[in-house]
Amino acid sequence: MVTRHVAVLGAGTMGAQIAAHFANAGVPVLLLDLTADAARKGLQRARGLKPDPAFTPDTWSLVTTDGFDRLDRLDDCDWIVEAVVEDLDVKRGLLEQIDAARRPGSIVSSNTSGISIAALAHGRSDDFRRHWLGTHFFNPPRYLHLLELIPTADTLPSVVQTVSAFADHHLGKGVVVAKDTPNFIGNHLALHGVVKTLALVASSAYTIEEVDAITGPAIGRPKSATFRTLDLAGLDILAHVVRNLHERLPDEAARGEFVLPPFVEAMVERHMVGEKAGQGFYKRIKTPDGGSDILTLDPGTLEYRPRSSPRLPSLDAASTIPDVRERIKTLVAGTDRVGAFLRETLVPMLTYTASITPQIAMSPDDVDRVMRWGFGWELGPFEVMDAIGLAKVRDGDLAPAAPDLQVLKSARQRGIVRKNAAASLVDLGDGVLCLEFHSKLNTIGGDTLQMLHAGLKEASANFAALVVGNEGEHFSAGANLMLLLLEAQEENWDEIDLMVRTFQGATAALRYADVPVVIAPAGLALGGGCEMVLHGDRVQAAAESYIGLVEAGVGLIPAAGGTKEVVARAAEQMAPGSNDHLPPIQRAFEAIGFAKVSGSASEARRLGYLRATDAVTMNRERLIADAKAHALQRVAEGYQPPAPRTAIRVGGDTVLAPLKLGIHLAWRAGRISDHDALIGRTLARIMAGGDLPHPSTVSEQHLLDLEREAFLALIGEPKTRARIQHTLKTGKPLRN
Predict the structure, then answer these.
(1) What is the pLDDT of residue 2?
(2) Which of 102, 385, 490, 557 has its CA 20 to 30 A from that of 12?
């Protein structure tokens, strides 16, 4: 079955975001609510959400709205997602109307976090029940990888397969099939530990700050830890889900595990429900100096107090342990407050998980995937049990959910062709070699470039194609700024010149390789990482790729061929016979000058960092497999290296003059600093092709030389070095 048209019923926060994500996948969506006006307003609210549910503003054009009085429009839909309020009777009443309006054979699912899927379908037609299942998207649906599918005894296996495949390949989801039990897998297990934690806080045994320090990255959990996460999710949602578990679990002892302490119920009554109410476990207030501060709740009084910094020495000591398994084991075994807390909360949660898994999930592996994909845990519960010696579930790491997921990880286990401290060469099979970065944030230095050249040489001699990518969080945060700053402080200008020439040579080698090179970015691909993306024969980008030439933020310009490539692409956008260079160059100049970073791969295409021939992978875990397939496709097409560009059209003074005027006006208006203006003028000169009195053509090498000269001039500026130093120290740009 092909999913060509989807309907989402319920334009609340969740329903509208689900509709947006189907639109992200290029699928037209009909969003319905009680009235057409309610649906329109729900869509409008979603458009203002942060983080943005849509890849680009154009995404929303695929979503149309209407009211429940137009359920006849469901006849055109292949998949109907019910996403109204979490109330059994309300949902069943709407599903009865859907049953009467839908086309036989169309799939119907409910986005519920815990209501019985079988109970919802009671009384529906045979065809409805055969094409019916639960689809529990996690909030926000664009960003959280997990989708729990909940079939019933009546659901056709082909329906489960169709929805699984579509969600995996088109929506980018990690799909786990769960059993039809209260709150399914993720919310059931996560809340067990939360309730234990809340009980300890209620007893005043631990402060909110202490709990968040312990339950964040120290044990392989997100930075939002426990209480920041609860504020984001909403305490009203927490109370609803816990109440559902307490009422619906069949075992009396299990029901007793899910009771919230009175102070949490009191918070819900007072609408202290978290971020959406402006107050929860934390509260942000404005300070007299115009800034802001964050206060922390005192559970005993329900008043807010200044936030304190917990003193937990064992956490500081454990932070030096890089392996999360060893770190958790050390903390759990500790004799201090941290160890006691984890033995009171984490260990009981693990024990409960082991006992309940056969009832709620198909396998321990699925449980681990749910907690990794839905809650951002580095290790699932059974992996933690193995790490601390509580149980032995499997030998080695959690296996990929399918053979074509995490291809690089599997290939690495078979053996590495060559490696150094910054990168490795891995044989992906079928004649494809992979260059994998593994420095901190995959920053690019001499070791990286050395392995890049080695990879190109190895691929040319013994392989058919090369993929550049990794399975880390980010493709590359760019060049090693610390090394650059040290050389600049020592005034080693010849060494910096050599560094730039070497980097330019590396990106050129990618561009003109003997074999097709496919670059596979995901997460951050900034600065030098973006320049690598720009020089591949093809790009296979993860949908969530944040690509940009951000050098202006540290007082520099892209000098590893990035500016050259952007100028060349802008020239290619000009209409045949046109001499109006300014519009495409203006767009490119703003992208570089304002250090714009794409919010998605789709937006990267709009910014010119991806081309029409480049492809996008929705499921991050399929990225390397898709890049490998793309590379083999280029081999089959008869790849030939491109010829160097010798006649790139540039505008000379017809471009430089208006760009410099715009910079001057922005400076006069106070929108940019003196140093910003200097960077802008330097960049404008390169993008105009240099000091040319009229439009002309130049070679790639001419533009590369301009890049290098400009880079060396800017790195010599004290204000640029101050920007670099500030960014290295704070992670934020400096406007000086």
Answers:
(1) 66
(2) 102
CA atoms within 13 A of residue 534's CA, in its CB half-sphere? 29
- Local structure of 272: helix, strand or coil: coil
> Would you say 551 and 595 are in contact if contact means Cβ atoms under 8 Å apart?
yes
Superfamily of segment(s) 6-177 = NAD(P)-binding Rossmann-like Domain (3.40.50.720)
* Domain spans in the chain, listed from the N-terminal domain onward: 6-177, 186-388, 407-644
Predicted local confidence at residue 291, as pLDDT: 84
Is a pLDDT exceeding 80 seen at residue 394? no
Q: Does domain 407-644 correspond to CATH entry 3.90.226.10? A: yes
For a pLDDT cut of 70, what percent of the chain falls above it? 100
Query: What's the number of CA atoms in the CB half-sphere (13 Å) around residue 662?
Result: 15
pLDDT band at 684 (very low <50, low <70, confident <90, very high): very high
Helix (H), strand (E) at residue 518: strand 517-520
pTM for this structure? 0.95
Q: What count of other Cβ atoms lies within 10 Å of the Cβ of residue 248?
A: 15
CB distance 360 to 184 below 8 Å: yes
Q: State in words which class domain 186-388 has.
A: mainly alpha
Mean pLDDT of 465-494: 96
CA distances from 174 to 31, 75, 167, 725 (A): 24, 29, 8, 40
Residue 414: band (very low, low, confident or very high) from pLDDT cuts 50, 70, 90: confident
Rounded CA separation 305/284 (Å): 11
Q: Give the Å distances, CA to CA, from 502 to 275, 465, 610, 711.
A: 49, 23, 24, 14
